[in-house]
Amino acid sequence: MSSMRTFRTRRVRLAGAAAGVVIAALSMTACKDGTGISVSGAPVPASPSAGAEAPAQGGGTGGGSSAGVTGTTGSTGSTGSTGSTGSTGASAATGTSGSKGTSGSTGTATGTASKARKSAAAVTCEGSNTKTVAAPVSRPLNHMLLTVTNTGSKPCHLYYYPAVEFTGAQAVPPVIEESKPQAVVTLEPGQSGYAGIALSSADGSGSGGRTVKSLGVSFYGSDLGNGGVGTQARPKLPAGGVYIDDSLKVTYWQRELADALKW
């Protein structure tokens, strides 16, 4: 038992002595450079080598080598940059609201009202507010054209057809029904309307043929049954007169000259 204690005591002493030698050697190394000359100031550290060990110093039984110089810690890698946030998608464009419908133009409304007033104020065309001209035409054969012009200050209506009376006439000649227009012909001041007169048959088949030298033209009102209204027109005929027979007929009043001569 005592020999074991003695052995342990020796080991402790040897370990202490070895440690002292190492410390002394390190002190001497710190005070001299490689030439044995003392160096003042702080020791210049050798260039570190990661993980390199210093050479063992001193000796002695059981003396351990000095610990290697700890290598420098590697630099921390830079943190990766944060990715940019994706752009927000554009909102869908709001549809435009429908445009408000335009109201009817005042001008049109005024014009319509004005036209209505004029129509309401229109009078019947007759001999005192018109001028009537009777003129034979070359085509169609045996035809005459009546032209009536509004000479008044108001619009006038040419109702139905002319009631013509040649010299010695016993009755008003019949009208060609196929010539009836879609609407009553209205003449503004200065405007003209037309009617055709078929004087006699083109093939000479008509009876009662005769030459006449005077003509009277009467005008109907809105009610045909009331007969002629106003003043009768007395257009002049050619100096030699015109030939008529019992096939004498007239057309309705027309707005266009061509429509009056196609029957």
UniProtKB/TrEMBL annotation:
Residue spans of biased composition, Low complexity class: 42-56, 67-115
Matching entries from InterPro entries are given as: DUF4232 (IPR025326)
Please list where the region (Disordered) is annotated.
Answer: 42-115
Which keywords does this chain's UniProt record carry? Signal
DUF4232 domain residues: 125-254
Locations of Gly residues compositional bias?
57-66
Q: Establish whether keyword Acetylation is in the entry.
A: no
Judging by the UniProt lineage, the source's domain of life is: Bacteria
Q: Which stretch is the leader sequence?
A: 1-32
Return the protein name.
Answer: DUF4232 domain-containing protein
Q: Which organism is it from?
A: Streptomyces roseirectus
